Amino acid sequence: PDGRSRIGSSAMRRVPTAALVLVVASLALVSTGCGGDDSSETASTTEWADALCAAITTWTNELQQIGTDITSSPTAETLEQGAEDLDTATTAFVDEVEGLGGPETEGGDDIEEAVQQFADTAEEEKAEVQEAVDDAEGATGIAGALGVAGGSIQAMGGALQTMLQALEDADGGGELETAFEQAASCQQLGQ
């Protein structure tokens, strides 16, 4: 009803994977070049990057599992559980990312603003999914709610991509580039 397309089971599974690919591509763009020094600022920025990549990995894995669970048995019960799991996973992710604040870099304030914009979008999309699930009645309602959920996951993936682009844009000094190269979770994310 809101103009979002319905999503089938294979597309539902691809959305988190697509988000992960976008994340990896963005991180690769951020980390294409120079090394860095071992200053405490770099170490702190590396810890920030590591925590961000770990949070992204956890969240995308959870979204992938939620999509698999819902599409393998699209019933009112699995849809309700999926909406609850999406709420829990996304709330934890948003809390973790917001808790990181901005890294100790020249563009830290811009990055913090981009993180907040992502968090706002994620909260809005979670609410849309919950409303669609609450309103779903019968097979048609379930199908509609699945479409809304798929559209919301895509919107969250787009917001994540926008946030990551802001990271790249704000990295004038190359500090994040170095941090992403050094952070173990970011290296694992790229595999």
What are the low-pLDDT stretches, counting only 5+ consecutive residues below 50? Answer: 1-43
What structural category do the secondary elements indicate? mainly alpha
Mean pLDDT: 76
Count of discrete alpha- or pi-helical segments spanning 4 or more residues: 7
Would you report the number of β strands? 0
The string of secondary-structure elements, in order, is: HHHHHHH
Structural Rg: 18 Å
Characterize the overall form.
elongated
Largest sheet: none
Q: What is the CA–CA distance across the termini?
A: 39 Å
Content of β-strand: under 5%
Relative helix content: over 70%
Structure description:
With 191 residues, the chain is mostly helical. The protein is 81% helix and 0% strand. Helix 3 runs antiparallel to helix 4. The N terminus is likely disordered.
Which SSEs are present, and which pair or pack?
Blueprint: H1 9-30, H2 40-72, H3 76-100, H4 108-135, H5 138-170, H6 175-182, H7 184-189
Helix pairs in contact: 1-2, 1-5, 2-3, 2-6, 3-4, 4-5
